[in-house]
Amino acid sequence: MTDTATIDHASAGEQRRQAAAEARRLRTLNSVFELRAFIALGVLVLVFSLLSDSFLTVDNVITMTKHVAINAVLALGMLLVILKGGIDLSVGSTVGLSGVVAGEALKGFHLGIFGVIAYPPVWVVVVLCLAVGAVVGTVNGILVTRLNVAPFIATLGMLYVARGAALLISGGTTYPDLAGDAANHNTGFGWIGGGRVLGLPVAIWMMIILAAVVVVLLRSTAFGRWLYATGGNERATELTGVPVKRVKMVVYIVSGACAALSGVIIASELTSAAPQAGDSFELNAIAAVVIGGAALSGGRGNVRGTLVGAFVIGYLADGLVILGVSTFWQTLIKGAVIIVAVILDQSQQRFQRRGAAASAVAVAVETADGPPEAAGTTVTSKDTPAPPDTPR
Fold first, then answer.
1. Residue 383 — very low, low, confident or very high, per pLDDT cuts 50/70/90?
2. What is the C-alpha to C-alpha distance for residues 52 and 321, in angstroms, rounded to an integer?
3. Which of 93, 213, 352, 384 has a CA 20 to 30 Å removed from the CA of 326?
């Protein structure tokens, strides 16, 4: 009997050690997967620095980061939508539409009734563009929450609606020379995309401020907790009393406003606006969020990862341009990066499930067998009753 008990304890101890070792290994792999965006960014910087002396110069880094900021603003709005388990394909078209609205406003509104042309100040133009983006987001939200249209279909439809609206307003033409006129009191638009504060472009400051706001929103507000819960299990969250439909509506509105802000930055930087601007930008935004570690199924993701994902996409594109790589190859490489990012995300989820299972096995073995016997202690019988004060 003593030999049997000793063998059982040895076997149980070996199972515990194996289960604990497997759990540690899977946790380590999961940590590596979570850092994949940082690793990718480090590799890109190292490779392009070795291939081009101009890649890591101060001026070039600032210029590339300015380009990153445009996609990062889009990606932060997309992050909120993906966290709740949705998608927004209309952001690229919203970029073009907001630019067209800015161009139309800066060129002046013809008030035929009074025979005058009204030139709104720049701040009014910006607010008007953000309002247009919010309207597009509101329509997306209504389609998804009230009419139960699948997010992919709803936002795909709005992609064409927003693009068509931009073409109708502009007549398919570009709005050049949006610098404004001092006589009309509408100058200063170019400062948004070309100005600097403390040595950094305004676009970078916008990215930083928006990222800080989203961090506070996700970490320190009830809305952030509702958002993660909705993405994790929408039905269960709704049963707890969380206003799930309101959460969905808000994230689409914010996504639309972020897209409009990107459109304003682009139009300001170029001092011109075209209805085709923002074409395929939605793919860049989704790629940044996924590379940053967010799950397309919802409930997992953060601002830090999204920003790093935006840097990966931006530095990759600019690095390929510096090296003179064809735009055709750039498109192919970007698509391959997106596919790899999704594969890694799925792999991470598998490792997380296996890690949870391994941890559960370790706990089950520990619970079933109890703590290992002290060294030198023998058990005389399996049927020896436990002392009266032993908790059961």
1. very low
2. 11
3. 93
Residues 216, 213: Cα–Cα separation, whole Å: 5
> How far are the Cα atoms of 15, 262, 285 from residue 279, in angstroms, in the given order?
56, 12, 12
Structural domain boundaries, residue 33: 28-369
Number of domains in the chain: 1
Q: Dump pLDDT digits (tens) for 135-182.
A: 999 999 999 999 999 999 999 999 999 999 999 998 888 888 888 777
Amino acid letter, 28: T
In a domain, 18, yes or no: no
Residue 318: name the closest of 338, 295, 341, 334 by CA.
334
Tokens of 365: 């073995």
- Determine contact, residues 111/194, Cβ cutoff 8 Å: no
| pLDDT tens digits, 39-74 | 888 888 898 998 888 888 888 999 899 999 999 999
105 part of a folded domain? yes
What would the two tokens of residue 297 be? 């199924």
For residues 39 and 267, give the distance between their C-alpha atoms in angstroms, rounded to a whole number.
33
Work out the number of other CB atoms within 10 angstroms of the CB of residue 212: 11
Does 21 map to a domain?
no
Considering the domain boundaries, does residue 170 fall inside one?
A: yes
CB 13, CB 284: distance < 8 Å: no
The pTM (predicted TM-score) of the whole model is 0.82
